[in-house]
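New to this. Please check this fold:
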Amino acid sequence: MRPHELATGETDEAVAGIADLGQGVSVPRGVPWFPVDVEERSVRWGLQHLIERTARHGGHADILRESLDGATLSL
């Protein structure tokens, strides 16, 4: 199985296990890209954000390379 197929399967499994996509998830504190006046976001918002970010950066070389060789970069 290719890395992206594995990730897709794991994501499908995780999402299928969530009974309510409207349930809240705490917003991390001290992270500059999260607004300070928002305490939580819905799971639905998180999934939509993940899809949007993946689509936006889908052409970047690191994502293409990861799909080919399966290696990930550690930050």
